[in-house]
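Ligand: dinuclear copper ion. Inputs:
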Amino acid sequence: MNWLRSILLPVQGTDYSTRVDNLFLFILLVSTFFFLLVVGLIFYFIVRYRRRGPGEATPHLTHNLKLEIVWTLVPLLLVMVIFAWGFRGYMDMSVAPAGALEIQVTAKQWVWQFEYPNGTRTINEIHVPLGKPVKLVMSSEDVIHSFYVPSFRIKADVLPNRYTALWFTPTREGVHLLECAEYCGGGHSLMEGKIHVDTEAKYQDWLENGDQSTKAIPLKDLGAQLYTSRGCVACHSLDGKRGQGPSFKGIWGQTHAMASGSSILVDENYVRRSMLQPQAEIRQGYQGIMPTFQGLLRDREIQALIEFIKSQQ
Ligand code: CUA
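Predicted complex:
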């Protein structure tokens, strides 16, 4: 069955994936079997009971008790098996083991914000240790989003004004994709993130020292990476097209009219403040919907984004 799984399904990043896949493949095979049975019988009956000559009439039929009992009980049994199997998995997925690493997740149009117990905050990206259970406590600041990690086989709605939880124990080192799976507005398809599964040592290093891999990258290139990975792309285009926020194209050095009536030069200080205190000045004609990136971007990352915006002429 593994060949079928590898064709149809993403890699398995947790033990739980195997359980989801087994149930999925069971349902798929049962459905395929009955599909072939029903369609096969249709064709068989078409030929077997075709009209053979003029005046030939079908004999009067009422019912067949035995047949009807069989075709009621067999599907009933099958769906009860599927229900019990699925329910057990669902319960196991819903209740995290004690002592799991707890990460707070906040969804907002159109970024994922994370907070670790030690205060580390990130956007669209988390690191978790291999083989340790991780619990996510999730809430939304606006509309309904859905936290979906295909390779972990976990998914749950993220709702405003209440908490939902998910947990997983990653078993495969590497990067796993996180997607928003509930249409949540214009930037929905860009609301994605990465889950880095690291060895314990690498994870601890990241938690203490942050991401070292970006140190050697020129500011402008780092800015280009952050533009996508931190979710700027969801609202700010590079081609001049108007989004939820102003496009970055050609704005550097311009003077923008603000909703407050003042006008401001787009320079380093203005761009920095727009990231950290986005509500301080709203550009005329736009809504103040941008979340603050205070505590979520390091100074070097802010510089990188500024250099990137500068380069968009
Ligand atoms: Cu958030 Cu779709």
